[in-house]
Amino acid sequence: MKEGKNPKKPWLYYYGVVLLVIVLLNVFVFPSLLHPRVTEVSYDQFLQLINDGKVKTAALDEYGTSIVFTVTDANGREAYGETGVWPDMQYLTQLLLEKGVIFGAEIPTQTSPLLSTLLSFILPMVFFVLIGQILSRSMQKRMGGNALTLGKNNAKIYIESQTGKTFKDVAGQDEAKEALSEIVDFLHNPSRYAQIGAKLPKGALLVGPPGTGKTLLAKAVAGEAKVPFFSISGSEFVEMFVGMGAAKVRDLFKQAGEKAPCIVFIDEIDTIGKKRDNALPGGNDEREQTLNQLLAEMDGFDGNKGVVILAATNRPEILDPALLRPGRFDRRIPVELPDLAGRLAILQVHAQNVKTDEQIDLAAVARMTSGASGAELANIVNESALRAVRLGRDRVSQADLMESVENVIAGMQRKNAVISDQEKKLIAYHEIGHAMVAAAHKHSAPVTKITIIPRTSGALGYTMQVEEDERVLLTREDAMATLATLTGGRAAEETVFGTVTSGASNDIEKITRLARAMVTRYGMSDRFDMVALETVQNQYLGGDTSLSCSSETARLIDEEVRALVRQAHEEALRILREKEEKLHELAAYLLQKETITGDEFMQILNA
Ligand code: ADP
Ligand code: MG
Ligand code: ZN
Fold first, then answer.
1. How far is the CA of 605 from the centre of ligand 3 (A)?
2. pTM of the predicted model, to two decimals?
């Protein structure tokens, strides 16, 4: 389909138009302006014209190759002519003298020097400047406004004169709020601090996993202090041209200085604040310059003026140490994943924005969502509201909340997934296997729900366990119970069907990760005692680990991990074999109901 009128014509279009105009001017306008019209005649015609007494003046041109002359034409006007030079100059001179032609005189072939420079020099310049303007403007548009204006500020600095957020909007995170409230107080009355001679930290660094409310906290500080909030993301400093990021930093601080007291918030500071190293020779000039500029600006400004810099990152371990030294980001404020009470508080804050049934139990939701971030909890509340609308209700019910928790944990239900009866049966045994091994351990969290309705995450069913209360420590017994529970699914398949399936792949991953951590990081194996064999690299993003031991030790670690898993697996097999009739009974029940509660499960198990 053809598009309608193109509102922004491409720069090539302008370029073409200007080029065409120049060519046309050159061909038609300039020659006639600069040079009077000259008629070329043959030498004999020239002689004839002299003889007729029509030639008034004649002159050799500067190269001596042609003669330029003037005649009076039929209308009595002066006209110019040109002809080649004939070798016999003597005769010509004679003839010219005879006819009274003024010769050797200057012929006015040039227009006035002023007009000529204007036309031939200044006019093209004007065109080029115009082209340049058009080009740079269209380029700027396409490149987000930064192409040819080096050193000029174009950073997307977002200024909010009022963020509208306060500490009330941030649930939990009491330690972080406490640390930041000092900054709020300082922004309120800096003089009190100046009087006693105290210098407030220039900057505070908020560190924590994604979605824990770092950005929210920074905004709340500005909102509490009622000062403007400058925010920019670290990635916006990283530019194509060396030096531009630094210029942006300079500009940011200049603007902030003018608006003081205010908060400057640099999000994702790790993108510019990475350790400077020589790993890439010459490859990181731009980033380094930007960082250097930031360091210089932080040193340069007067801390008592009331500009406070907040920055956020989820990769504090890669930050350049220079950023963290006193006088810069000397306050480091951890913003951790919320605990049970924190999750409940966050749910309550967000539940205020939606209409809910009277009897919703947010505490139950909080218990189920161990490990969830504030952003995820906010999402759960919103998803439940969407579900309520979808089902034509005008209030969020507990069922909505529970369902969205499961969506977040395990993905959406795949109601129309086609799974054969034989496979469904196997899945039911697998899940009951997990649940029964869990129930056999007093160290295991109680089973609250078992389902064999598949989810979009790929889970074919799952067993949900929810801790009664949150625990911060993992005992060796807890860890072993978890390992056994995770092997329970596969153990049930083996016990009943005498075969194994790929359905346990996710369990296997979890088992391996936990068993490895027990050996390499938690010091839970006799063989290695309390030796750290692995170090965590980015604690807030997935927690990748790197091995810090010899390859010989690595082999022993693998052995140790295998021994732990085997031990757990054997225990699970033993538990299930002892209660095989219960296994059959529960699996049949689950197969028929598809989803059962923890209570139903315990009743049958203990019957
Ligand atoms: P971060 O910057 O740490 O990645 P954000 O501050 O952008 O996280 O948080 C994203 C959203 O999650 C917030 O807008 C808010 O709705 C919600 N949220 C996160 N933490 C909290 C909290 N402690 N209290 C209330 N809401 C929170
Ligand atoms: Mg953020
Ligand atoms: Zn499983």
1. 19
2. 0.70
